């Protein structure tokens, strides 16, 4: 993939992504939309409208910690339905929170405001990792906005000794770099991003060049993880934001959800068999799917995920 300027068209990757997964239908129209929240912060999102239509979204997507709305691009291409993908606070083009509170129940009101503004019907609300916990909080507090809840590779109370620790390790360390190429190499070294082209695309869509020429992640989590890694340990251990998002309140939210619930997990993702068993015990009416992938299902098997979601949305 050639080196790109910082002002590249953020939807310019769609033709290549469609070709990668064999989608030969006309590409949807992608557009960035933004909303000013009551406290003055900006919430940003991507809206995808199928070619030849002006249909409003029927599926809304919420990404995981450290990602952004573009993580869903290829899945949305395979889905073939009008969709909305939101940049959660502190990620993508949405404002960072001054209080650094990125808990599901804190982020949920932003998403509800987005649904009230950009959708006209109850959504199939799809969340991955942190986004799934936020989606559960939204479904619990605004049931009229959610037709179905789909959670991808996370459960409340997930075992943090394995997968989530990789997130902390990846983002801990320097908070800026000399070039995006350094970030691409780091992502590949951690086994993230898949191919070099995919990793390069992900880095360009998830980073920015500052006025001083240094490159930094767009999301706030990298700064929080780096600060936590350098903080002195206390007797009870480090209680950083990446740990806090996995609190018991997630189970309370799921108890309050009236919409149908689906859990999709990777067979080598972050949700263990024990985690899945606890989920099935606590949410017995939920549908469970195991797919051959890791944690970032939407990036590793996007076409398969798109087809699965199409069946749910249909």
Q: Tally the helices: what do you get?
A: 13
User: What's the CATH architecture of one domain?
Assistant: 3-Layer(aba) Sandwich
Strand order of the largest sheet: 1-2-4-3-5-6-9-10
Strand residue content: 15-25%
| Text of the CATH class of one domain | Alpha Beta
- Mind telling me the C-alpha Rg? 18 Å
Distance from N terminus to C terminus (CA atoms, Å) equals: 36 Å
GO molecular function, one term: hydrolase activity
Protein name: Alpha/beta hydrolase
InterPro entries: AB_hydrolase_1, AB_hydrolase_fold, AB_hydrolase_sf
Keywords: Hydrolase
General description of the model:
The structure is a single chain. With 314 residues, the protein is an alpha/beta fold. It has a domain at 14-160 and 248-313: Alpha/Beta hydrolase fold, catalytic domain (Rossmann fold, 3-Layer(aba) Sandwich). Helices cover 38% and strands 18% of the residues. The protein has helices at residues 14-20, 73-79, 104-118, 130-141, 163-171, 180-189, 196-205, 221-230, 241-244, 249-256, 273-282, 297-300, 302-313, and strands at 29-36, 42-49, 59-62, 83-87, 123-128, 146-152, 207-209, 215-217, 261-266, 287-291. Strands 1-2-4-3-5-6-9-10 form an eight-stranded mixed sheet. The protein has a two-stranded antiparallel ribbon with strand order 7-8. Strand 3, helix 2 and strand 4 (83-87) form a beta-alpha-beta unit. Mean pLDDT is 87; it is low at 234-240. It comes from Microbacterium rhizosphaerae. InterPro entries: AB_hydrolase_1, AB_hydrolase_fold, AB_hydrolase_sf. Keywords: Hydrolase.
